[in-house]
Design a protein that fits this description.
The chain is an all-alpha fold. It has helices at 2-22, 30-33, 37-67, 71-92, 97-107, 113-146. The radius of gyration is 21 Å and the shape is extended.
């Protein structure tokens, strides 16, 4: 199963690289660029990669959770941590009318305060996960260096 997923991901990576090369230039207006076939293909590849990642994570994660001792408790702790991180991200996100007006005037895109707050929340959660990942990579190395 791992091998099949890896081969599919390599094939999609090559396809995405070809589509990336065919994307419209920066001088093309956004309304026309979004209608290009390469952009549609990139979105299709993105959704396919998301589906593969989700399905393989669920399959391998559930199998590991059911076979490992204490696996279910680890999943509950992780979900609670994710909910706390999402709550903090929502609290830090700002949904201000000035941002909506700036997006409307500078980019010509219509949006709402709720959409801006949702995007801010998701960005905060992403950056929080990046910080957590960096800390989890650095701490074991520092422990190893210090010999603890």
């Amino acid at each position: 199963m791992h091998r099949i997923v890896k081969i599919a991901l390599v094939a999609l990576g090559v396809l995405a690289a070809a589509l990336w090369y065919m994307l419209p230039g920066s001088n093309v207006p956004p309304s026309e660029a979004i209608q290009s076939g390469a952009m549609s293909g990139m979105f299709s590849v993105m959704w396919l990669l998301l589906a593969i990642a989700t399905i393989s994570s669920l399959v391998f994660g559930v199998s590991k959770m059911l076979t490992a001792p204490g696996g279910l408790m680890k999943v509950v702790k992780t979900l609670v941590a994710a909910l706390v991180l999402t709550g903090v991200g929502y609290g830090l996100a700002s949904g201000e009318q000035e941002v909506v007006d700036a997006v409307s005037s500078e980019r010509g895109l219509e949006t709402t305060v709720g959409t801006v707050k949702t995007i801010g929340t998701l960005l905060n959660v992403f950056f929080g996960m990046v910080v957590i990942a960096i800390v989890l990579m650095i701490v074991p190395g520092v422990k190893r260096i210090l010999g603890r």
